[in-house]
Amino acid sequence: MHAHETLIPIVLFISIAVVLIVIRKFQNDERLALIEKGGDANIFNSNKKNNSFPALRYGLLFIGAGIGILVGNIVAEARIIDDEAAIFSFLMIFGGAGLFTSYFIERKEATKQENDR
Question: What is the C-alpha to C-alpha distance for residues 26 and 44, in angstroms, rounded to an integer?
């Protein structure tokens, strides 16, 4: 095993960690500057979406991904599409369909909760 085969993954993970740390530091500096000028730091929290149904979202994503892998394997065994293309394409299609479905269910529940208030 050559040295570059070992160094590439190590450098990749270190680079990702450094980028995430730098992004977090600049976000913190921005908030501190806003507070020092008398601004309200809660404006950063208002952009975050209310994530009240994470189990639904992840559940439908994983169900869709599982169905996508199953359908991809069936299509690959039927020799309609290459193995890798079938599995990855159906994985993405059905996973996206699961997220799409969860969006509409969450939106329906949110409007129902707003109407009940």
Answer: 13
Q: Is 86 helix (H, G, I), strand (E, B) or coil?
A: helix
- Domain around 99: 49-116
Q: Are residues 61 and 98 in the same domain?
A: yes
pLDDT in tens, 18-45: 999 999 999 889 888 888 888 776 777 6
55 and 38: one domain? no
Q: Mark whether 63 and 108 lie in a shared domain.
A: yes
Place of tokens 């009240």: 52
- pTM for the whole thing? 0.56
Residue type, 94: F
- CA 79 vs. chain centroid, Å, equals 31
